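User: Assemble these into one structure.

Assistant: Restating your components, then the assembled model:
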Amino acid sequence: MSIKNDVILRLENITKEFPGVLALDRVSLEVKQGEVHVLLGENGAGKSTLMKILCGVYKKDGGKIFIDNKEVTINGVKDAEKLGIGIIHQEFNLLPFRDIAQNIYLGKEPRKNLKLVDVIDRSVMYKKCRELLDSLEININEYALVKDLGVAQKQMVEIAKALSSEVKILIMDEPTATLTKNEIDKLFNIILQLKAKGVSIIYISHRLEEIKIIGDRVTVLRDGKYIGTVEVCDTSTDELVKMMVGRKIENLYTRTYNKIGKEALRVEGLTLNKRIRDVSFKIHEGEIVGFYGLVGAGRTEVAKTVFGEYKPDKGSIYVFGRKLSKLTPTEAVKNKIGLLPEDRKEEGLNIKMSVKQNIVQASLKKVFPSGILKEELELEISKKYIKELNIATPDAHKIVKNLSGGNQQKVVLAKWLLTESDIIIFDEPTRGIDVGAKAEIYEIMDELAKKGRAIMMISSDIKEIMGLTDRIYVMYQGKIVAEFDHQNYNQEKIISFAIGKGEKHG
Amino acid sequence: MVNLINSKNKFKKVPGILFGLLAVVCIFSITTPYFFTLNNFINILEQASILVIASFAMTLTILLGKIDMSIGSIMSLTGVVTGLMIHNGMPVWISVFLGVVAGALLGMFNGYLISYQGFDFWIVTFSSMGIIQSLALVITNGATVPGFGNDFRFLGDGSLFGLPVIVLIASGITILLVFLTLRTTFGSNVYSVGGSEQISKYAGINTEAIVFKTYILSGILAGIAGIVLASKVNSASPIAGSGYEFDAIAATLIGGTPFEGGRGGIVGTLIGALIIAILMNGLNLYGFTPPIQFTLIGFIIVLIIIIDVLNEKYKAKKWGK
């Protein structure tokens, strides 16, 4: 078929410089009509920057863009839209207090022909919106407010928004990061439909398994440079990883199983609202204990209750055999419990503060008993952890907002190491983190267990959780439904318990 | 997937604070004999009109997720500017027009610094609040501009078709602004900038222009409020408007437009301003002196906000289960 081989988009030697960083260094990319072209690379490789240039959010410093073999200039979002380029951003770009139609047609509302002011033609807008949602088989009311939608529904609305104008090229930036298996299947179906219509898709993802399923070709970027383009069908995952990180990662999961020490954390009969029901478990020194389950199974709630953020209706928590009388985060920190929350940017870090300020944040009393801050001491401590955890930052003064996800996670970890936490809770520690940094975080976790820390790990990545933990508790609808020792790990069994299909565990 | 039902959402569009308004009306109607009369209602509307206009000026900037602390000062300055021009022999309508233009220019000053220069809106409008207030004092030497002729007084004290002109002006502005905020792309963009400037930018909206224009509009509305106020009290004091910014914030918040911006709107603020006016009127009928009125109103506002917060919490809890 000749259609399939038409190059619809060509980027030539695109260069973009931010103050002090060459984000893109003469990057080229060719996308054919009707293909799913995967853009692969670690965080900071320049994928998002390249896409933001293509959709008019950033201006390029050099290079050329061709669409249908004609050179084009893109000076703003409107230009890109006119050229048929649509984008689904990594973070949701929806206004929570506006309805679906208002969000979908934001900035391009159908208008009535009035001279003086632009009046929105509401009847046309809602009618068009309904038709669009129907065509994508999205069963959501167009008058519903975005804040009332679930994550998957929001993602569907994002897709509808991108498709609301005539698109030839659709950019999807990590569209599956927040979706469940079922929803991902639905998304893939939509992608196939679009492909059939001749729409080209530029697909950014970290998930290598997905690329195998949905991708046609892969272009790899590393450190702002073009590494290569390969066909998905004749490239192995290992090769892709190698292209991405520039070295071969021998063993992603490092785990030395240690001798288990004494009991560090015991939870008995924990019940919270209807979100956690009668949950009991133990974690020992030197042990990494996994909590597996679907989104909404209650794992994060367990973590946050142990950390004292949620008040349980029933149940008790014992730290080294001593029952905690008060359950508050202050008390948890005093009892040497640390939490690396799922939402790093909102809950784990003070995103506008520097690396050093974040590291000492939970230990101010310990580090500065007099109550007076000393910057040299702060610096000295931070430098130690920057070195120990290999945090990639030019110095300790850097604002954490500007660090990559992996390095942000390490800063959160440094905070809990400084408090000398005995019990560390990792909630989805590697979400949104690239492969290289993932391996490092696994290594650090293993190291911590070796030193006798008790680690609770929540993860939705079955490979990761099986590769790293001593034991796994499987949660389903707020209950622990199964427990596995690492000698008895069985992927199918664990998953079937997590989706509520497992037989009663004897 | 949950199919969100249509009717639920339409019901939600009725601002909850409407019940607060009804409650206040009921209480005063039952407990005081003079409250529930047509004359008193017209009286309340007349008293509320200036606050309504000033509160709209505030609401537009709060919808943007920002604020305009200089509204009271703009009212004072436009009042004295118009007053001085009239006393210097300028035709009334030109003076009024130039007064409104002065409001627009002051709004433009705020808007330019905030949108195109990227300065913090608190710092800009707090500074301009002081600067504009001082300007009003300087050009009047601190003295009040005294009484006017009947043609100017028509605005604030006259009546047309049996209704106070001031009420007609406020009603006209209300209708225009409801249309502007809910039916035009400009209004939609104000909400979306308030919801998130970045999302708006990504949608190709010229966010700077929206912020700039909104502050100009806020200045114009404050200007109108200031001129009408001067006409109503038949003098232009250089501090006539001071304090209005706080009542305007109260009316906006009571009306359901939170400081984060992006939701709420004109209708809610209208109700908020009416509640404040009714409270003042009712407490007056009870015979409370103004200082005690203000204290009680303060408490009632806190009470309304507490009820609102508890209501939200209750809803959130129900949602959680």
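The CA atoms of residues 19 and 104 of chain A lie 34 Å apart.
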